[in-house]
């Protein structure tokens, strides 16, 4: 992430510097872009991810761009923690965070 700090919660807020180096508050709903597939986080390009419904202990690390969570499998059991590298998928566009990719790399 370029000059941003923030948190991953129900609001997915961030504060990013614009081109004049002024701090701007921005929001990106990661739930629209990330899905829980068999207990692992995946990028969902259809805009219907909804991972927060079946995942817990969600965290987002700045500046590494790593989203981590523990998610349920279809049978209800918790899967091992999974992470998703969003660094190449979220961009600071003049102080606003934007989703800019169609795929993200899964990390385990």
TrEMBL record:
Cyanovirin-N domain segment(s): 1-99
Signal peptide: none
Domain of life: Eukaryota
Gene3D superfamilies: Cyanovirin-N (2.30.60.10)
Protein's name in the database: Cyanovirin-N domain-containing protein
Upper classification of the organism: Eukaryota, Viridiplantae, Streptophyta, Embryophyta, Tracheophyta
